[in-house]
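Sorry to interrupt, but I need a hand with the structure work. Could you write out one complete protein record for me, on any chain you like? Could you add the entry underneath, on a fresh line?
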Amino acid sequence: MIRVETPVTRLLGLDLPIVQAGMSWASSCSALPLAVSNAGGLGVVAAGPMRLPELDRVLSEVAAGTERPWAVNLPLHRAGADEVIDLLARHRPPVLIASQGGPRRYLQRFHDLGTRCLHVVAGIEHARKAADAGVDGLVVVGAEAGGHPPPAMVGTSVLVRAVARAVPSLPLVASGGVADGAGLAAVLALGAGAAQFGTRFLASTEAAVHDAYKRAVLAAGVDSTRTVGHGLGVIRALGNDFTARMLELETTGAEESVRRKTFLASTLKDAALHGDVTDGKVEAGQSAGLVDEVLPAAEIVSRIVAEYRAALAGLPAVVNAGE
């Protein structure tokens, strides 16, 4: 087994600084997280859309299917979050990645269980607050990310570097715009200890989304995503009829009630489970333009490692003048 040692791999007990993003529907299953964890990265179960019995089953499957570290992603704003926290505590996940809420709500309880706790942040202020609360590490999300990018739309390279300078003691996972080993090398150079890969793992055989969704990701270019829902909870998604309607409303200054009705009429579930890539929310990052093949998740991990090694080998050496 190849190992790449960083502050994040040491913290979480990983072989590789590769984190599979907790993507609603796509990783609300056991197959994708298990494949990534067993390949040496960190597989992440997305708890957001799951009902309690389903989540209970998936967590049991993951725990039984690997001896490697794995994680659960929990959006703290989801309905019934307290009941989900109770369920997670019973399963004692090795790693908890929480988002969209304050860490003090869960931190002490999971630390007492021995769980490592990472918190998702999208700015320096929130990073400092999470650090002060006592989290073990941060997932720093830049503007290129699919799903919910940071409101200020600061790019990953700038934001990761800024957070690394602001909280130098905390291990960081960089998220947004990373799809291969060259991207991994880049964010490690910026001060992160791992990269989170979302869109790349959408195009995996184990991702629990409709084939039409995967084909849409493969067909996308780097300029194919749109950000819509400003003032409502902005998302980044592949351009389609839904995003066109939203952009028209936003550019013409439609009232919030009209924009909200259109925004809520389309869902990620429509696209991910039912294959409605025309009117559903096909959430994906700009890195979709770097993804051109559906592969098994373990092969994706191995390719990222090979690309990372090639990227390092291709960097120019530092030489003294006159040599």
Residues 210 and 273 are 5 Å apart (CA to CA). The mean pLDDT is 96. The two ends are 38 Å apart (CA to CA).
